[in-house]
Amino acid sequence: RLLVLARLGEGAAAAEVAGYHRGLFENALEDHSGEQVSGLLLLYSSYICHVVESCSSTIHLIIRDLASLQNQGHSALLQEIKVLVVAHNIPTRLFPDWYVAIATSPMTCPQGSTQSQSTAEVVAECLSLLLKLAAWIQSSEEDSEDTNESVHTLAPELLIPAETIDYLYNAEECASPEDFLRIYLSPSQPALDSETVWPVPSHFSA
């Protein structure tokens, strides 16, 4: 599972952003034999919140493509992309399909409420809201043919507040796609206990 935040590029339209992701998923299925993608793309007026569920190879393909997209500079469709969560071996999916939803005006939260929380707590709060939204989407599918019409109008309390988005953008723990790939692809080289001891044990200095 992948959770990403990003600011919309200047002039980026909702249909264009959704189309970019659809094309990316189709490419993953056709060229890389990945699993079907499920999740939710929440489109706000100036940013997106996107949760993606698929196999590890597809998740990493998406992150690589986002890194390439961000390197396009100011002309890129998405700006200031942040990778919040990458989780493997998820036992069950939250979403039965991949959805696109538009929120015209996000919820607000009390001033300073996120400042007293750690980044991990704020991310967990986002995931909790997305979990509730997933349950709402699944239940509403039976009652309506169009669950993408207006998530904010139908379930405003489930949307991630704007203040929370801003907080996560400024959190040092949230990496860009490029930084994430650099960390992920770096070989793990744990230090031996003897390398952190001074003076060096005699059996190493002999």
Topology:
Blueprint: E1 2-8, H1 14-32, E2 38-43, E3 47-53, H2 56-70, E4 78-86, E5 98-102, H3 119-140, H4 151-154, H5 162-169, H6 177-185, H7 202-205
Parallel strand pairs: 2-5
Antiparallel strand pairs: 1-3, 1-4, 2-3
Helix pairs in contact: 1-2, 2-6
Provide the CATH top-level class.
Answer: Alpha Beta
Q: Please count the helical segments.
A: 7
Main pleated sheet: 5 strands, mixed
Percent of residues in helical segments? 25-40%
- What CATH calls the topology is Alpha-Beta Plaits
| Count of spatially separate domains | 1
Strand order of the largest sheet: 4-1-3-2-5
pLDDT under 50 segments (min length 5)? none
Characterization of the model:
It is a single chain. The chain is α+β, with helices and mostly antiparallel strands. It has a single domain, classed as Alpha-Beta Plaits, CATH 3.30.70. Helix content is 39%, strand content 17%. It has 7 helices and 5 strands. The chain has a 5-stranded mixed sheet with strand order 4-1-3-2-5, sandwiched between helices. A hairpin with a 3-residue loop joins strand 2 and strand 3 (47-53). Helix 1 (14-32) packs across helix 2 (56-70) and helix 2 (56-70) crosses helix 6. The longest helix is centred in the middle third of the chain and has 22 residues, at 119-140. The radius of gyration is 20 Å and the shape is globular.
